[in-house]
Write a structure and sequence with these properties.
membrane, 7-stranded antiparallel beta sheet, Lipid-bd_serum_glycop_C, about 25% helix, alpha+beta, elongated, 4 helices, Bactericidal permeability-increasing protein, about 40% strand, Bactericidal permeability-increasing protein, domain 2, disulfide bond, single chain
Length: about 190
Amino acid sequence: PTALPTAHEPMLLLAVTEFVANSAAFTYFTAGALRRNISSDMLPRRFPLQLRTKSMGLFSPELQQRYPDQPMELHLSARRQPLLSCRPDALHGALFGSAEAFVVLPNATRVPAFLLNIDANVTGKPTITRNRLGGTVSLTGGAEPCLRRARLRGLPVSQVKRLETLLKFGLWLFGVPRANSECCPHPVP
């Protein structure tokens, strides 16, 4: 148990325990709320790898040969409940996700391409600026991708490493900034 400070003047106290944080994580995970599907038209044009078989042909020429220049989808989901721990300065979390890629055929059928598991450690720090409550999210210790199942034959280990590096880059370039934009400062009542 932690003793909360005695208020001598008006202040905002926010106390979050690991039990509350992990209960929320369990609830979101169990309800299936920790899933996101990304289609080729959702990626920024400046992203170095578009979700099309033409772009993925760098990693698997067979994919491009079987399905020339077809759109792809990426299904992101939590493999298991995130684990959260509370510290006085931040909320730390271990995330266990997977990214499954599909080729979208002209008849809207989705053909599985590969499944990549990605584990990451993150830190969330609350901030108060003037009368605004917000926060920032950062990766701590990076992200560790691991190709669990390549459904298309002919994906050499060297190409998997390139794909892992690109996914890490995408997480740093787009995932963390997006999380921070979701944590934009809100007025304190």
